Amino acid sequence: MNEHSDIPVLDVDPYAPENLADPYPMHTLMRDTGPVVRLKAYPTVVVCARHQEIHAVFNNAQTFISGAGVGLANFNTEEPFRPKSLILEADAPLHTATRAILSRVMSPKTVMQIRADFAAEAERVLDQALERNQANGSIDWMAEVANPFPLKVFADSIGIAAQGRENLLLYGDMVFNSMGPRNEVFEKSVERVIPVTQWIMQQCDRANLRPGGFGDQIWQAAEAGEITMEQAPMLVRSLLSAGLDTTINSLGNAIYALAHHPEEYAKLHADPSLARQAFEEALRWESTVQTFFRTANTDCEIAGIPIQAQTKVLCMLASANRDPRKWPNADTYDIARKPVGHTAFGTGIHGCVGQAIARLEGELILTALAKRVKRIEFAGPHSRRLNNTLRAFDTLPVRLVAA
What we know:
The chain has 403 residues and is of the alpha+beta class. Helices cover 47% and strands 12% of the residues.
């Protein structure tokens, strides 16, 4: 099996600070080495970095399970340090039940109903950002747009209180860090979230959720017997942790892509109807979710290579999205591209259940931006927020040249 087979071994650590800051040379090395590689630093893990193999793993949920954790730890052999997500870290039949609830709560009909309110808020946030940009000469895109917009519209949709929502960012950062090793990045995120843990848990209680919001609808499903009353707050918590950080950082990565490619932004400014496509290509080119794990549920094969049961399989989603075997000119950001099949939201039965709402938020922000701003310029050095799973900015100073 995998510990005895001829799988190439690389002396690279995906969680080293330099690789978290700039993963692309490492991705190229992994893809070029083979369809499956091993890592000296994590000998019980195999890695897939090519699109074909990752697509195959993610679309075989019986062989490559999520219930043992989508991070480095194997919850079949070690105790989770926190309760498992009922959607992200669950297999059938539990996953079937919880996903059915969330799919109903965040249905296409729901997306249509919230679109007008989301659009109005996108325009308000952009107008305020432009006022600050005019007054100060630049803005921090993360602080002025990428953070406040989802914290307003998505948290409103869930139905949590307005006060203290910034705590959700600390919680999401910790959750996604927990999917890697217990390194310094993870330990610091745990320290930051400890003081607000009680507040996070309180927001998931029925009494603290607005009637009719996503959170309240989850509790209604518990009352109807679709899940237990104990599972309801855990599912609300999963929604809070998965639905904010990913969208916030996708908005940051999209603006980075457009500012880095002024000729592509010029196309968007000339035709704001390209906003959805520009956001989709940004998801491919600068994927927010860099990695997720699966666990081999039985002895199996990947690309004809034997893999032993209980082996953790590290899927390099961002690498798949720049795999030249799948994408022509894969390292080029091109809003004319239609990147059907990218893995930024995963794929298969565990594909992100809230991706329609994330896409809506990205489209509306880029539409409002394209109508108001002629050019985006970097206004100073940006800073990365290193995370074991996410590609994230801490600050992103930009200058918005009004149309």
